[in-house]
Q: What sequence folds into this?
């Protein structure tokens, strides 16, 4: 297996994404230790050695950018650990910040191929060790979203995920997705009166990641638009487009519930 024998520190705060990434890494042969936010990741990496760190960019307490920057600022071997950023959505200026903070590469979510996921990790590790590297990749992620997709769920992404993590883990994952998305929907409704742009940004970041993980591309695309409006302080756009996002969330939840019910 391509990651056999590797110790991986996975820094990810969302339970759905924790499950997906950990299952894939273990299927590739890696030993995985989970950090549930950036602060915990820094505590762990300071006391234990790892072959590679996978770091989500937006995490509570300490962001992924700060994790990257802090580790690169250490002295000794710890500063040279390969670090790969995981992100569901990154604007150009954010990608520049990730690179400047010291990431060896970026892998975009959702992860469409477990084999490509492992190959990208190995390739970015070789980059850190100054071995021969060909090209620059983003890991086959969110850019594959198709705005014209009529279904609430992209079957290619969904079926790839189900095959990668197995039926038992998929059942557990769907339960977490259902819980996460319902909680996010409730927070969005509450954030409308009055409009709370900070909350909109926070919730849509979760939606982008969780929806993308299971192939709910219509939700992911609308959440990206809403997230951008939040970053641009465009309350009018948030109010105008929120019902469209809520409608797509409802379609997604209906599909997920049908899968859970069998």
A:
């Amino acid at each position: 297996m391509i990651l056999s024998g590797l110790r991986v520190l996975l820094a990810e705060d969302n339970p759905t994404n924790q499950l997906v990434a950990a299952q894939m890494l273990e299927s590739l042969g890696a030993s995985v230790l989970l950090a549930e936010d950036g602060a915990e990741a820094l505590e762990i990496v300071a006391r234990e050695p790892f072959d590679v760190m996978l770091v989500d960019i937006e995490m509570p307490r300490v962001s992924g950018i700060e994790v990257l920057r802090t580790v690169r600022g250490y002295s000794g071997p710890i500063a040279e650990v390969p670090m790969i950023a995981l992100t569901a959505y990154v604007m150009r200026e954010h990608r520049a910040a990730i690179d400047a903070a010291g990431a060896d590469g970026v892998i975009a979510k959702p992860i469409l191929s477990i084999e490509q996921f492992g190959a990208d990790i190995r390739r970015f590790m070789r980059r850190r060790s100054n071995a021969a590297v060909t090209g620059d990749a983003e890991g086959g992620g969110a850019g594959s979203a198709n705005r014209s997709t009529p279904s609430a769920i992209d079957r290619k992404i969904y079926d790839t995920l189900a095959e990668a993590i197995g039926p038992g883990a998929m059942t557990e994952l769907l339960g977490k997705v259902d819980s996460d998305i319902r909680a996010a929907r409730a927070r969005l409704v509450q954030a409308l009166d009055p409009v709370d742009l900070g909350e909109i940004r926070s919730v849509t970041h979760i939606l982008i990641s969780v929806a993308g993980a299971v192939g709910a591309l219509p939700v992911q695309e609308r959440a990206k638009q809403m997230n951008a409006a939040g970053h641009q302080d465009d309350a009018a756009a948030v109010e105008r487009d929120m019902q469209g996002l809520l409608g797509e969330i409802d379609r997604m939840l209906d599909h997920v519930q049908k899968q859970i019910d069998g």
About this structure: The longest helix spans residues 155-190. The chain has nine helices and five strands. Residues 155-261 form a domain with the Four Helix Bundle (Hemerythrin (Met), subunit A) fold (CATH 1.20.120). The first strand starts at residue 7 and ends at 11.
